[in-house]
Design brief:
The chain is an alpha/beta fold. It has a single domain, classed as 3-Layer(aba) Sandwich (Rossmann fold), CATH 3.40.50. Helices cover 37% and strands 24% of the residues. The N and C termini lie far apart (42 Å). 33% of the residues are buried. It comes from Luteimonas wenzhouensis. Keywords: Phosphoprotein. This is Response regulator.
Length: 133
């Protein structure tokens, strides 16, 4: 009797653009996604020019961005992503907000000390986009 064929679980490999001036913070975000079991390919952008290039060449399926970037704002990052693909999931991750500060309206906002919530949020958002097609 032949052994039953193993059923491999297909997990999509998602391309995620990490927009952050801190290499350490970008690596922590990628680590949080992988630790949660997501199959991801990540690329980092620190400037508007790098982000535009990555949107065109890397073709990310989601963006995780810091709110406060030197010489480049989270609002600008969100506008670039929306101009490239209005439905692309976009999540802000920040170390904190000043009293009364309101970040631009994205699909999600997390504090950097709550990165365990990043993978479930991004997976839900990206699955929703896939379901539309």
């Amino acid at each position: 009797m032949a052994a039953p064929a193993s059923r491999a679980v297909h997990r999509p490999v998602w391309r995620v653009l990490l927009v952050d001036d801190s290499q350490d913070d970008a690596e922590l975000a990628e680590w949080a996604l992988r630790k949660a079991g997501l199959e991801v390919e990540c690329r980092r952008a620190c400037t508007a020019a790098e982000m535009v290039r990555a949107l065109a060449e890397f073709a990310p399926q989601g963006v995780v961005s810091d709110v406060n970037l030197p010489g480049f704002s989270g609002a600008q990052a969100l506008a670039l992503a929306r101009a490239h693909d209005a439905a692309m999931p976009f999540v802000f991750v920040t170390g904190g907000l000043a009293p009364g500060e309101r970040p631009p309206q994205a699909d999600g906002l997390l504090l950097k000390d709550d990165l365990d919530a990043l993978a479930p949020l991004l997976a839900r958002l990206m699955a929703g986009v896939e379901g539309r097609g």
